[in-house]
Amino acid sequence: MRGRFLLAAALVCAALLHAQTAQPWEIGPFTRPESGNPVIAPRAESTFADPILKAPAHWEALHTFNPAAIVRNGKVFVLYRAEDDSGAMAIGGHTSRLGLAESADGIHFTRRDAPVFFPARDKQEAREWPGGVEDPRIVEREDGTYVLTYTQWNRDRNLLSVGIASSRDLMHWTKHGPAFLNAAGGKYAGLKYKSAGIVTRLDPEKRRLIAARIDGKYRMYWGEGAVHLATSADLIHWSPVEDAQGAPIELLRPRAGHFDSGFPETGPPPVVTSAGIVLVYNGKNAVEGGDPELGSNAYAAGEALFDAHHPAHLLKQAEHPDLKPEMAYEKTGQYAAGTTFAEGLVYFHDRWFLYYGCADSLVGVATAPKTPFAGIQGTK
């Protein structure tokens, strides 16, 4: 009991220290609720009639992690990645599907018995089987349609891509294929890429995040290793923004001595505020020359600020992470180096709720109070 008290006191002190050093444009720092975490854990008893196997699959038996989040009908809905007990006992060796859970308070969840998004006998099967559908992010369009970005994984690392899907109810989905398949005349059809967050704004009437248009276009930050930018007229078909050499422009790169010294990776959908576009992103710590307060290869979540009128222009970047692996459930799992891998961000009950993967095994949540700059409508 004494050990738990000391750990809790240390975490509170760390949060207070970060709050004092956080820059005014940041949405965080985020703090974990006193109880409730992890909010979603594996269930060995869950079964699902898989349409490819034509047999029951224990679809969330091993791991539940890396969640997307959206507010709908006054509740938080989380789409989480679930791994079954098939394949090799290694990261990426199982089949992933997406489960759906809902909560009235953002912490205590009720979930569906079967996944709502999964590999099937459809046009995307060759890209999604047997690895599955991974690491979702989700936004709401102005008309109420939900747009999902996710990783298509068939266990061929050279065919990794961001898929796009849409739904009106979070239960029934239409898959549209890779985000960049037809961009620039097919130039990016063979590109290996993952992790994509579409820019949002806080709608003052709906009091939730909605996909934002900037100069008539939607924007999406994407990438692992470096963070890039893309544009779209419809949220379905995307084109990478290129540099003078015709390559995808690089906006964030690794920083020696920081939590993202290994590389940065796009997190949840960014938010337009009066300060600019706030991107919460994930950083992998390098084995050598990284953040000395983090372990080697640990993932932590931090923030960057971009110009709302020029989304490729980086204004500021936080020196320290908002959230890093500290709790046992964030460092004990199939990724033992530890992760607080953020993918879901919502504004709910006048607070920010950040949903994240814990050690590639569980789903956690942390919250932050509403910041003064974030209440405006933002760019349409």
Name the overall outline: globular
Q: How many angstroms separate the termini?
A: 51 Å
Runs in which pLDDT lies below 50 for 5 or more consecutive residues are 1-20
- Give the full name of the CATH homologous superfamily: Glycosyl hydrolase domain, family 43
Whole-number mean pLDDT: 93
Which H/E pattern describes the elements? HEEEEEEHEEEEEEEEEEEEEEEEHEEE
Gyration radius (Cα, Å) is 19 Å
CATH topology: Tachylectin-2, Chain A
State which percent range the strand residues make up: 35-45%
Counting structural domains, the number is 1
Question: Could you outline the blueprint of secondary structure elements for this entry?
Answer:
Blueprint: H1 2-21, E1 48-50, E2 55-57, E3 63-72, E4 75-83, E5 96-103, E6 110-111, H2 125-128, E7 132-140, E8 146-153, E9 161-167, E10 173-178, E11 196-198, E12 200-203, E13 208-211, E14 213-214, E15 217-222, E16 228-232, E17 239-240, E18 263-266, E19 271-272, E20 277-284, E21 299-306, E22 314-317, H3 328-331, E23 340-348, E24 351-358, E25 362-369
Parallel strand pairs: 12-19
Antiparallel strand pairs: 1-2, 3-4, 4-5, 5-6, 7-8, 8-9, 9-10, 11-15, 12-13, 14-15, 15-16, 16-17, 18-20, 19-20, 20-21, 21-22, 23-24, 24-25
